Amino acid sequence: MHLEPSPTTSALADAVSVFVQHRPRLFGIAYRMLGSVVEAEDVVQEVWLRWQRTDRSAVVSPVAFLSSTTTRLAINVAQSARLRRETYIGPWLPEPIDTSADPEVGAQRAEALELALLLVLEKLTPTERAAYILREAFDYTYPEIAEILDLSLVNVRKIVSRARKHLTAEQRENVDTTEHRRLLDAFVSAAQTGNVAALEALLAPDAISLSDGNGIRGAARLPVLGRARVAQLSTATPGFWRGADPRFVEANGRAGVMLHRDGVPSTILTMAASEQGVHTVMWVFSPSKIAAFLDSGSRFTTARGPVPDGG
C-alpha cells in the first residue's frame, strides 16, 4: 500500500530543501560579520530553528527572510562578541577558514573574506559591517539592505559610503595570488633558515606581526611593529622552526601555512602583502581556532547535503 506523505512531513521537507539551498549564503554572511566559524554556525543553526517555527506560507521571499534573520542575529552576536574580546589575552584574529572547496564562501564574489580585511571590518560598528558586507560581498540592493536593517534608504547609502571610506583608508592594494604565494614561500624559507636579512627584504617598512593565542605560551601578547622587529621575532626562537613541518593550505581565499609538530597541527601562518612587501603577518596559535579551520574544510560538502540538525 502506498502512503501519501502527510502535509506536515511534506512542508518540513520543503523547508529543509529551501534552507539547504541558501545555507552557504547564510553562513557566508554570518562568518564575515563575526570572523568566527563556530559563531557563524551557531547563528545559522538558530536561523534554521526559526525557519522551522515560521509560518512559511506567509513568507513572500524565503531568501530575503533567511538573509534578514541571519544578519540581525549576527549583529546581536557581534555586539556581545565585542565585549567578550575585551578580555581576550593578546591580539585577536578572525578564525581562518579553509576555502579550498569554496573560495567565495557563499557569496557572489570573494569580497570581504581575506583575514586582514576581516580584521579591519572589526573596527566598524556591527550595523556598518552588515551594510558593507551585504552590498559588497552579496550584491544586495540598497532598498533590500534598508529593509533587512530596518533603516532608511538614505541612511543605508551613507553607512555603506562611510564604511567604504574607512576601509579604503585602512586597506592597501593586495598583490595577486601568485605573488602572494611567492612571498609566503620566501618568508617560510627565510624563517626556517634564520635568514633575518632575507626576511627584512620581504617585509614592508611598517610591517606588523600579530599572534593570536589568548594567553598560550610562546604567543606574543602585543603586536610587534616594524620590519626589523618582525624579522627578528620570526626567527627569534630557533626551536620554533626545528622539527616543524610546514604544509600549504588555502585560508580565506589566499595561501597560508599550517605548521605541524609530530603530525599535529599547531600553528596557522597567513599574511597580507602589497607592492611595498608583506605588511601584516598573522600567527594563529589558538587550538580552538586551528580546530575550527580543520573542521571548516568539510562544511561545504555537508552544508549542501544532509538535513540540518535541530529538527
UniProtKB/TrEMBL annotation:
Gene3D superfamilies: 1.10.1740.10, Winged helix-like DNA-binding domain superfamily/Winged helix DNA-binding domain (1.10.10.10)
Domain RNA polymerase sigma-70 region: 19-79
Pfam families from the UniProt entry: Sigma70_r2, Sigma70_r4_2
Start and end residues of each RNA polymerase sigma factor 70 region 4 type domain: 116-167
InterPro entries linked: ECF_Sigma-70_Domain (IPR052704), NTF2-like_dom_sf (IPR032710), RNA_pol_sigma-70_dom (IPR014284), RNA_pol_sigma-70_ECF (IPR014303), RNA_pol_sigma70_r2 (IPR007627), RNA_pol_sigma70_r4_t2 (IPR013249), RNA_pol_sigma_r2 (IPR013325), RNA_pol_sigma_r3/r4-like (IPR013324)
Keywords per UniProt: Sigma factor, Transcription, Transcription regulation
Family according to the record: Belongs to the sigma-70 factor family. ECF subfamily.
Quaternary state and interactors: Interacts transiently with the RNA polymerase catalytic core formed by RpoA, RpoB, RpoC and RpoZ (2 alpha, 1 beta, 1 beta' and 1 omega subunit) to form the RNA polymerase holoenzyme that can initiate transcription.
Protein name as catalogued: RNA polymerase sigma-70 factor
Lineage, uppermost ranks: Bacteria, Bacillati, Actinomycetota, Actinomycetes, Kitasatosporales
